[in-house]
């Protein structure tokens, strides 16, 4: 088992989630992915806001397919009822890459991407000692060699595909080089049995948009498919709340308060969803609170309103009062640096989960996000009124 090839960490991480009190079985998504194996349309990019279970899903998919020699975790989950379950579970070579992970004291893009390339080369050399593999060969050439010599294919599970766009040391050239790396690794390659990619941002479009156009993209605001697998439905929260009442000595949370604090995200299918991380944290702690922990500047509304402060502030004031603001949703590119129009700004805020979108309107989905945005706005006003020394 290597650093990326058939790595045991996704298995162990998903097992830990399964053992949790508030685990929700989302394994039915595998029934949609299995038929795509070795088909032309076998590239999926599913984007969701932060804290919506993307990494849990990526770990689950890798844990299901990869051949680690571990006993199956899925015997009692929904996917076990699928006709092709036994033929697929634990029968594939999986390359799992989390692009949010970096080498120690990483200073530039070359160090960042070398960690992935060199790790993959080492893994393949260890897995196929009978093949002559040069250390300095491109990883896609090595994987092609493996396929041509053995017929073996690989499932790629890529988490946090867009993390590179948030790194301070990344230049515009680096971004193009990174997209080229993904294209050469995946596009048109016979060794790719399935590619599942997830992150917050939709795939960036450069020039003619051909770099990663093999991916079918699914976001929460405009695409219906896969909606039910990310976030918690009312019925799922009902189940978890009953579990909470049974296991908590002195329950402090009402079912209605969970709805008020964490519900309200809308999907293109017209469904309302709860933030899964916040619900689990609240039930575990037996306390309603703001569990939206900032993980960087893209969680701050200052990133979005700095070019259009007054208009956005006025709209947010209306949203705080429960109003909805008319707005279209645009395909927000990972490479966008300056968001100047209201549509661009609100599209970005929807992508990051700060707002939600339904039927041509944007709004604040729940009390948790209301608190986050109010606090952010207070900080921005203080910053504007602070004299420059």
UniProtKB/TrEMBL annotation:
Q: Domain of life of the organism in this record?
A: Bacteria
AAA-ATPase-like domain: residues covered: 16-206
Sorted alphabetically, which Pfam families does this protein's record hold? AAA-ATPase_like (PF09820)
Q: Name the InterPro entries on file.
A: AAA-ATPase-like_dom, P-loop_NTPase
Q: What is this protein called?
A: AAA-ATPase-like domain-containing protein
Source organism per entry reads Dorea formicigenerans
The top of its lineage is: Bacteria, Bacillati, Bacillota, Clostridia, Lachnospirales
